[in-house]
Amino acid sequence: MSAIAANLPTLQRLPNWIAPAILLAVAYLGVPFIGTNYLFEAILLPFLALSLAALGLNILTGYAGQVSLGSAAFMAVGAFAAYNFNLRIVGLPLIVTILLAGSAAALIGIVFGLPSLRLKGFYLAVSTLAAQFFVQWALTKFSWFSNDSASGVIDAPALSIAGVSFNGPIGRYLFALTVVVVVTSLTLRLVGSQTGRNFIAVRDNETAARIIGVPVLKTKLLAFSISSFIIGIAGVLWAFTYLRTVEPAGFDLDRSFQILFIIIIGGLASIRGAFYGAALIVVFPLILSRIGSFLLGDIFDSGVLDMSQRVILGALIILFLILEPDGLVALGDRSRARIGAVFRRS
What we know:
Layout: H1 2-12, H2 18-34, H3 37-63, H4 71-88, H5 94-113, H6 121-141, E1 154-155, E2 160-161, E3 164-165, H7 169-191, H8 194-204, H9 206-211, H10 216-243, E4 245-246, H11 253-266, H12 271-296, H13 302-323, H14 327-345
Antiparallel strand pairs: 1-4, 2-3
């Protein structure tokens, strides 16, 4: 331990990009070779899609201070828009399809973000429920969105870029990973820019922000549009890479609450928080299912699992809000600081 302590100052001076570079190297070069289909299908693909959705909501709620309960609606808009762009515009590149789908979600986000110009807090949160109910109603009512499918459930199109197919579990994982990495990198640049500082100023005090020259109304609508754009792309990943189907039931109100829980548990106004929270939300039911089956056997069926998951997650959210409002990110930072202190004392 003394040797590690001696080298600790050197380790602390390493460039900030070292850890992300190692993580990306493992994600791109290691995981595809050692991962199983179960790992990709049940863990990594939903984790990537939910992380991106939480990242988008964190822009709106964590950084700009605008509460939204309609995230799943914007995911649905992105998924169905991507499906219809791909179906009705022959030869449209997949990347363009995704960008257009995100733009469609951003447009809807601006429309439903207009109440933020007058409403705040709880009242704004309730108004965003209108997006959730309206989008689900429209997708169910008008069969054109699902290409007149009798069931309303449609198969996602094949994933292909420049003749390269991404249809297997590994291919869909690499495709989703690349999208998440690119969007996260751009988001990091955004929150560090003047626009990101404007978001924080509006969140902390609208009156003070207006006095120092921040265009409050424009900033709010920009936050809604950027957030919805990212969440719309997350909806494409959720439908095209994970579910492999596009249906309104995949984007219900429970999904909106799930995304909100992710940023509360992970940490508001934190890029890492979106990934920490998504990891917990995805892995937790699997661990709970194994433990419950081991302890209770056949009694612990899917109904008991679902109810247990809701109860425990609800308790966790209450504990985080009371004891650690900054979420898992703050806990992780404190743990690293304590470990560093122990090594320095050694």
